[in-house]
Recover the amino acids of this structure.
């Protein structure tokens, strides 16, 4: 707890309460100038980083918060602006907080290669560093280049400190976070923590006995191992650097029933479609893809079935006339599967020509919704990882129509859905494969089986 006094009042600001795992991390990193915190999901790295930055603000320091995308820092801005509301002298939405202690916090996105230039900082947090652009310090726009050319020099004036936080994202020497954690030449001191090092999770229920909570915690931890691919568990929860080279990520076997595709359900909860589109006429990647799903949580069998799919190459101006066909097919599938709720509508990525499709659908009274922005903002690898557990547990199945279908697209006759899903590789930065149907698949699984944020 830190206190700052004004002429007429005493204001009390809490920099945050840390759990035992966070205290261990703070103690291990304290005293080092360049610090790397590698930890599993839900450990609480961002909360620890916010506490460290809050301490700097209370002490009147010039601070910065850096994230791969601006929206990833928005929640941090709102939390800290609220925490310091009694002391804020100036603020600008998601870009600046200045407080009466003379402390200042700037927010930067790594989309900006000039992040931090012309400033001098005493404390900097780089959050989710493993998910910034890969490449060495000569690669324009890479995390390594921005660190060396823009961010690191801002610490020179005050001999400032940097706290770099992230989960792991594969074993890749071109990944900045992997490099600073494994190569001592970069000068970072690393602390490694797993998801299980957060002793507060799962949260204890009201009136739950300590022994009952411990038993439930042990069961949930066992479920994490059972329900996730071993490599996913190692990376996401143990925060290990996993080598994904050559690993087929989505197994066909997991999406079949006794090595055969599933029939259409005789009854289901509802059907929906996901569209991924881009109008880039004349390029090699201007596909418009749609995948149709049945939600089947109350009638036995897998809770999510892939009913059908399509992929076309049409100019943006023709998408408006193509869209009604999607809704017609969705209504037909709702009838064939005797969907209790009928058609649940179409989900569309709200960017590129998808924004136009959304506007057209709303104007015509068609049930269309934008895909949750937190999901669309994720990278392709992150999206695939976020839905991998559902596939690994056998909760998603191909139906006969989707599995046996072939379409001629760009002079190639094949099952493009299976090809894109089954050829996907984590961290395959040299891949030039089509991925529009893969995107609709990942979005569909997240929407149907994920939580309210799509995870």
């Amino acid at each position: 707890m830190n206190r700052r006094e004004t002429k007429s009042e005493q204001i009390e600001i809490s920099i945050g309460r840390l759990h035992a795992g966070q205290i261990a991390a703070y103690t291990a990193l304290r005293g080092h100038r360049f610090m790397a915190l590698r930890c599993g999901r839900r450990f609480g790295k961002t909360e620890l980083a916010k506490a460290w930055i809050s301490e700097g603000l209370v002490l009147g320091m010039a601070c910065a918060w850096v994230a791969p995308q601006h929206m990833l820092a928005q929640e941090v801005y709102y939390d800290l602006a609220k925490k310091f509301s009694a002391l804020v002298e100036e603020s600008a939405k998601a870009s600046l907080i200045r407080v009466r202690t003379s402390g200042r916090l700037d927010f930067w996105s790594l989309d900006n290669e000039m992040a931090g230039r012309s400033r001098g900082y005493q404390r900097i947090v780089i959050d989710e560093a493993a998910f910034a652009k890969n490449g060495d310090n000569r690669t324009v726009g890479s995390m390594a280049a921005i660190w060396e050319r823009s961010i690191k020099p801002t610490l020179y004036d005050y001999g400032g400190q940097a706290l770099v936080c992230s989960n792991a994202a594969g074993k890749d020497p071109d990944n900045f976070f992997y490099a600073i954690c494994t190569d001592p030449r970069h000068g970072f001191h690393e602390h490694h923590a797993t998801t299980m090092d957060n002793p507060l999770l799962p949260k204890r229920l009201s009136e739950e006995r300590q022994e009952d909570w411990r038993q439930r915690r042990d069961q949930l931890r066992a479920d994490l191992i059972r329900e996730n691919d071993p490599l996913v568990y190692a990376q996401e929860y143990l925060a290990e650097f996993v080598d994904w080279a050559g690993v087929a990520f989505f197994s066909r076997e997991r999406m079949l029933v006794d090595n055969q595709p599933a029939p259409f359900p005789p009854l289901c909860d509802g059907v929906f479609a996901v569209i991924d589109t881009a109008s880039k006429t004349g390029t090699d990647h201007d596909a418009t893809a749609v995948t149709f799903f049945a939600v089947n949580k109350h009638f036995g069998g897998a809770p999510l079935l892939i009913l059908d799919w399509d992929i076309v190459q049409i100019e943006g101006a023709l998408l408006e006339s193509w869209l009604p066909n999607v809704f017609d097919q969705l209504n037909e599938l709702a009838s064939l599967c005797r969907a209790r709720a009928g058609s649940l509508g179409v989900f569309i990525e709200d960017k590129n020509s998808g924004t136009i499709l959304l506007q057209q659908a709303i104007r015509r009274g068609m049930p269309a919704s934008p895909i949750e922005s937190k999901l669309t903002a994720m990278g392709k690898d992150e999206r695939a990882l976020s839905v991998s557990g559902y596939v690994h547990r056998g909760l998603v199945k191909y139906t006969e129509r989707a599995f046996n279908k072939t379409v001629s697209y760009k002079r190639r006759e094949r099952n493009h859905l299976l090809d894109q899903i089954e050829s996907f590789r984590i961290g395959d930065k040299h891949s030039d494969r089509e991925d529009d149907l893969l995107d609709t698949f990942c979005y569909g699984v997240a929407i149907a089986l994920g939580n309210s944020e799509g995870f």
Observations:
- The CA atoms of residues 62 and 121 lie 5 Å apart.
- The longest strand covers residues 304-312.
- The chain is about 35% helix and 20% strand.
